[in-house]
Amino acid sequence: MSKLETLHKSLLAEWEKNASRNIKTVGELIEQIKQCLGDFDLLSKIKNETLAVIHRDVFEIDALYAVVRSDLDAFENAISVVHSFYESQKDNSVNKYLMIGLDLMYLLASNNLSGFHMLLEQIDQNVQQSNPFIQTPVKLEQSLMEGAYNKVVLTEKTIPSPYYAVFIRIMMDTVRGEIASCLEKSFKILNAKDAAKLLLFSNPEDVVLFAQKRSWKLQDGVYMFEGKERVESKEKACLDTTRIAKQTIYYAKQLEMIV
């Protein structure tokens, strides 16, 4: 067995440990394998079928490795390599739609809607409607366009793969950040329970942590925004937030009238 085949076997063994895998070890193995893939003398001694399997596994794991680390730049590069590899192969990978689904999630979270629809157009309609890896980003985009953000929150509980979670969190962080900025500009005070509903939090502790990060003052169950300037999110806005802000103001004002 060649050095490359040994490293490949070790990578698969480590990756298949799932939650107990050593991420540092995975990264080191990927880098070692990539170096070997540039050694043409070594590659010439290995069967083409074996090389195809090694390339596929390494490219796919590299993309998933980027997701696990929440490294979106690395994911963008890795998934591009995966797509190029798929195009060069006549046989489909069992992970093909997982990979495409993750790319759709990435494009959606990055607000690259043109890229999202271009990729979606390459997928058969039957697959779009029946494959859970593709269905999920399609339904998420519909929910975001409709402003049904509660559905986005609920989607996290029914995702077809745990790798989807990081992209949903990015979407929700962006949505909540913009809603919060809108609340700060629209209110002097807001009941904590109402704030939780508007921010789509189901866990009260999450609201407290969120409010602390934005330096919201809590007094007698009420958040006070008086004299507070808008807090800009440090993260790049990744979604179309105009509609979010308008809807938030409307619902928030309705709550203010009730209170």
UniProtKB/TrEMBL annotation:
**Highest taxon of the source?**
Eukaryota
Instruction: Could you list this entry's UniProt keywords, alphabetically sorted.
Output: Proteasome
Q: Domain (PCI): give its ranges.
A: 70-241
Its signal peptide is none
Name the PROSITE patterns on file. PCI
Alphabetically, which GO biological process terms does the record hold?
proteasome-mediated ubiquitin-dependent protein catabolic process
Q: Which InterPro entries match?
A: 26S_Psome_Rpn12, CSN8_PSD8_EIF3K, PCI_dom
Q: Which GO terms describe its cellular component?
A: cytosol; nucleus; proteasome regulatory particle, lid subcomplex
Q: Which Gene3D superfamilies match?
A: 1.25.40.990
Q: Which family does it belong to?
A: Belongs to the proteasome subunit S14 family.
User: Could you tell me what this protein is called?
Assistant: 26S proteasome non-ATPase regulatory subunit 8
